[in-house]
Amino acid sequence: MGLATCLLLGGCAGGGLPARMTAAMDAAEAPRAVDWRKVATATDRSRLRGWRTAWMAALSAVRADGKGAVIAADPALYDPDRSLPDPVPPAGTYRCRTIKLGGQGPYGLTHVAYGWFACRVSEEGAIDRLEKMTGSQRMAGSLFEDTDARSVFLGTLALGDERGGLAYGRDTQRDMAGFVERIGEKRWRLVLPYPHYESTLDLLEIVAGP
């Protein structure tokens, strides 16, 4: 297994990636893009296909809970179709915050916005990497080309004092899949439809700054 393959989706800790992914991801050592569809699990491909349904359900839940003003106050962030060219943030450090929409279950909160934490985008050959580095819920994964207005994020979740996440594909409950979109000047979002915990749709808002 090549070094680029190990780095692509969170390392080779715990025995490396499944053979199905290894073959697809060896292409990372080639000049151009890896097809994310050959890397994503079946579960994550399904979640990504349902992105619009997740958006509509989440926004409907927020409005039904009397919190429509929150959506109206930031139309760029909450517009499902907002996606500008050049979706991947340049390499560097950023501020980011998680927003959870449409709580799971009868008692789930329909809108929760967390504080700002540190994120980083780095270049690793043909694949860029996005990490949320601080907070009790952290993520790390790779950004794959999709269209000129969005890229695909595939990664994993680390919790609490865990030093790092598992390799992608090892634990369905920790796998994360979403779309990165540019929504303004030096402003991006990661859209995560149907996360495994707490909500119907998660947003990671990403803005320039240390």
Unreliable spans: 1-8, 11-31
Largest sheet: 8 strands, antiparallel, barrel
The largest beta-sheet arranges its strands as: 1-3-4-5-6-7-8-9
Compute the number of structural domains: 1
Helix content: 10-25%
Q: Helical element count? A: 6
Give the end-to-end Cα distance, rounded to a whole number of Å: 35 Å
User: Tally of extended strands?
Assistant: 9
What structural category do the secondary elements indicate? alpha+beta
Task: Compile the SSE list and pairings.
Layout lengths: L2 H6 L10 H7 L16 H8 L1 H14 L3 H5 L2 H4 L13 E12 L7 E3 L3 E8 L2 E6 L4 E11 L2 E10 L15 E10 L2 E7 L5 E10 L2
Antiparallel strand pairs: 1-2, 1-3, 1-9, 3-4, 4-5, 5-6, 6-7, 7-8, 8-9
What does this entry show, briefly?
This protein is 21% helix and 37% strand. It is an alpha+beta fold.
Question: Could you please describe the fold and organization of this structure?
Answer:
The chain has one domain. It is globular and about 45 Å long. It contains 6 helices and 9 strands, in the order H-H-H-H-H-H-E-E-E-E-E-E-E-E-E. Helices cover 21% and strands 37% of the residues. An 8-stranded antiparallel beta barrel has the order 1-3-4-5-6-7-8-9. The protein has 210 residues and is α+β, with helices and mostly antiparallel strands.
Based on the model shown, name its key terms:
alpha+beta; eight-stranded antiparallel barrel; 210 residues; globular
